Amino acid sequence: MLDVLTPSSRELLLHMPTSDLLRPIADAVRDDPGDSRTLADWASFLGVSARTITRAFNAETGTSFARWIAAVRAQHAVALLTQGWEVDVVAEEVGYRSASAFGVAFRRTTGLTPGAFRAR
Could you report the per-residue pLDDT of 12-27, keeping only the tens digit for each? Predict the structure, then answer.
């Protein structure tokens, strides 16, 4: 959303994976951005190596598994912050253990702290 209004060097627009391998991950994380499964968890669940998922994410989305997850979480967080949710509640909703960890990740992804984003 921010990238459309004001071009940013930090992209929130994501390439959605479409392969049969990555679709379960994409669907689960979009449905619940707080899903805490790690790359290793997904690899075990899907019966493939973590390296296979890593290569597939890079090939299909142009980014890593971790950055893709962070961007999905940031997109969801933007929507919640826009609706006036408190930062600590948003942090929990999108899968962070603390508001400070969420703030660091949000800033890394968007270039703004959650508070600065809300002030805009």
Answer: 668 889 999 999 999 9
